[in-house]
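dumping the sequnces here before i forget
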Amino acid sequence: MSTLVLKFGGTSVATTKLIESAAKIVKSEYDKNNNIVVVVSAMSGTTNSLIDHVNSIDFNDDSEYDLVVSSGEQITAGLMSLALKKLNVPARSWLGWQIPIITRGQHRNAFIDKIVPDGIVNDFKEKKVAVVAGFQGISSEERITTIGRGGSDNTAVFLAAAVAAERCDIYTDVDGVYTSDPKMTDKVRRLDKISYEEMIEMASQGAKVLQTTSVESAMNHDVNVNVRSTFNPSDEGTQISNDVSNETRAVTGVAYSKDEAKITIIDVEDKPGVAAEIFKELASSSVNVDMIVQNNFIERKMTNITFTVPMTDLKKSLGVLEELKKRIVYSKVLDEQNLSKVSIIGSGMRNQPGIAAKMFDCLSNNNINIEVISTSEIKISVLIDRNKTESAVNALHSVFNLDKI
Amino acid sequence: MSTLVLKFGGTSVATTKLIESAAKIVKSEYDKNNNIVVVVSAMSGTTNSLIDHVNSIDFNDDSEYDLVVSSGEQITAGLMSLALKKLNVPARSWLGWQIPIITRGQHRNAFIDKIVPDGIVNDFKEKKVAVVAGFQGISSEERITTIGRGGSDNTAVFLAAAVAAERCDIYTDVDGVYTSDPKMTDKVRRLDKISYEEMIEMASQGAKVLQTTSVESAMNHDVNVNVRSTFNPSDEGTQISNDVSNETRAVTGVAYSKDEAKITIIDVEDKPGVAAEIFKELASSSVNVDMIVQNNFIERKMTNITFTVPMTDLKKSLGVLEELKKRIVYSKVLDEQNLSKVSIIGSGMRNQPGIAAKMFDCLSNNNINIEVISTSEIKISVLIDRNKTESAVNALHSVFNLDKI
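..and the predicted 3d for all of it:
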């Protein structure tokens, strides 16, 4: 007998008909004599309409926001339990406070501190499926919290750790993780396996199937995650775990993000602490700085500092720099919009030299100019003209042998 | 400093704009230095759409029903707190389980057993308004319950008792309790005061402004209830309490219900226990029997038993009687549809003789035939042809001096 966590996203439970279909998937795993925890998101559209209600009152209070918005998952939990019972699968719903899923941190962006799964585990003895409302928990003040980014996926991963589940299946509207975005190239392949690290890089570089936070939680708790399609449940999807032998492939996927802006500060006084001051100031204004490059001109005691930010943060960033002019010396600030970041990701590049050179060569052969480069152990990102995104993704996808044959 | 409970019904909080208007009413009471508990219903339409979701799955489980449906009041509680804070009124939302409002009995039809208002009363010290989600509580199994008929009105009345409130204001879409239904006669007057007993009879005889259960709770807990209009808050509405001097009026109101059916069992064997057996059987089939009349023909040792049921229960009742034919002796069953029950209600009739005669005389003068009569201490009801309902209500309203001058 195994214990499984099955999580269904918003599009998988968008209507009561779809909830009944998802219940059939649960039943098929239940009938194999597994202990089952089901985690559900809000029905697609519900969360947005609840947020609209909150926004229309136009007063910010995150604890009341959490109370209102968490009702979406509450509704699905009740409906999923009904759908399971209709199939003769014993079930009961659990809200965050009932389990409890204890959270810390700020309302609306809380994080899971501790789950006490005793009630759920007790129900396993009666062969009862636990249907858990995702995305929510309870604070030390006994108020309802929501857990921000990663939401219900994170609930599923933490529950899988708490009940020592063999597997955490994330059911969604795609059938797994792909080598790249199918919208950019029709040669994408579905990956059968991917490592946590690779998945984290894929997610943070633009792949939308899972939030970075959830994959990090899975890695930290050693939870085997499968990304699977609700609409094709016989397919096993993509397995995310440590147990991946990547010796044969240097690159696992190509990711991109299209809303990048580049800022260059020209002729910054080159003395210790200046860069720190700049980026501290940006961070305290919640600007999400990504790639950073610094070119020193030693003879002139000056330096240029270049970095990228999401387009949405550009205006705020320029304001911060204008303000900083009172304290640090520089000649001017240049900004450039309409840029994309394209990244290749793969654990295999640790063992294979020359991957970066091959990437740059490929882009150059396709007349794509590189503005900024940044690298990590298992990722190389380049900033390019946004109009070239598609051709860059396609060219890299081919040159690293990711194309479907 | 007084403590007030203010309850807003579904039409009073149907949109976020209306919630903001209701919050202004709360603020005006708060600014008079009162401790305030606000009880909210679900936004009009929300409960029905949640019930539709549950029904579409077509499996009956009352605990999951409660989980889903209670989210409606949860949403309003959060939005009302936001609206109050926007007006600089300190507030926090409370769900049934957070207070707690402890219930007993069946899911979906639970009743309030105990309220522990310590958290709310503590918040009074910080001048904080408690915004309570109506209609819900928590069972001894720590699951969410809903409290059936009377719903949020009942929550308000019980909270008023728990915090020893001076007043419980029920804000709704009408400005109080009327002498009769404005749809039937344009001569209706709004009552400034009415006794609990009278209000209970008015509600159970067809007046829809409050559920009988809520008024009974108010009477049992000695809670002063005011029925007031959200859309005209400067008006004080109708006050329901024991403190009513009715010496001058014999009749307080005229109520009616249009969906009555009459059943007569002809030539029932007249021996002890027969009537008991009939009505026990009907009750165990959940038929709601109302007026009962029995005519004995002593010389024949036979009797006719007549009673009324709601139209919706007619078919079921006839089935029960058919089944009973195996055990009791009678010749046949007659049924008559298209009947109305018209009632005059007033504590004053206790001290004034001749009220019944005056009623029957009035109806006779208007060519309205009486089929069945039933009376209580403060109420006289007659069953008449449904087509005569309006003229009966109008005639009685006039003859008992209820008309607006």
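The mean pLDDT of chain B is 93.
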